[in-house]
Design goal:
Strand content: under 5%
Strand order of the largest sheet: 1-2-3
CATH topology: Chitosanase, subunit A, domain 1
Number of helices: 8
CATH architecture: Up-down Bundle
Structural class: mainly alpha
Radius of gyration: 18 Å
């Protein structure tokens, strides 16, 4: 079964520290947690207190309670709803988790469901899933069927990344002001070519 700590560590490698970029629709953000979307997160009162220091934002990195609040947030809002502990492939769990963190749990699961549907050989391997963004028993069962039949996660991971990359492209096409985030987003799209 997949390990949360490994997925969490990987995703934090993409998430910066504190930022308040004017083009970021999430507004003030710490470790990928956007205040606009999660105003009641337990870490915001800690950050607000630490802002009074001349060492801000450097003083955030070593704060133990803030570090624990970040970990608990990712566990509660992303890993547990994805049922990450039930996924038998660590790389797939990590990809799903990171996509969910970056663009929402339901969208991340929809990418997984779409990829599974596109890889089922016209329903010869298994029936199409309803693409509803719900990480339920049918989605997880279908995921494990694909992994068993393919004996590899390679095609699934590539397909999930293609869908993720297409999503980023559409965001930037609709709003060119978001191009400032292109390089950071593309770091999250790991396509193994060859």
């Amino acid at each position: 079964m997949a390990d949360f700590e490994q997925a969490f560590s990987n995703t934090l490698g993409f998430e910066g520290g504190y930022s308040n970029h004017p083009a970021d629709r999430g507004g003030e953000t710490y470790r990928g947690i956007a205040r606009t979307y999660f105003p009641n997160w337990a870490g915001w009162p800690i950050i607000d207190r630490l802002k009074r220091s001349a060492r801000f934002p450097g003083n955030l990195a070593g704060h133990a309670k803030l570090k624990q609040a970040v970990r608990q947030f990712y566990l509660d809002y992303f890993w547990n709803p994805l049922k990450g502990d039930e996924i038998k492939d660590q790389a797939v769990a990590m990809e799903l988790f990171d996509s969910a963190v970056n663009m929402g749990t339901r969208r991340g699961v929809r990418f997984l469901q779409q990829a599974l549907n596109l890889l089922n050989r016209n329903q010869k391997n298994y029936q199409d899933l309803i693409v509803d963004g719900d990480s339920g028993p049918k989605t997880l069962g279908t995921l494990h069927t694909l992994l068993r039949k393919d004996r590899s996660n390679r095609h699934l991971l590539k397909m999930m990344n293609l869908l993720q990359g297409r999503h980023y492209t559409r965001i930037m096409e609709k709003n060119p002001g978001q191009e400032v985030f292109a390089r950071g987003w593309l770091k999250r799209v790991e396509l193994e070519l060859g």
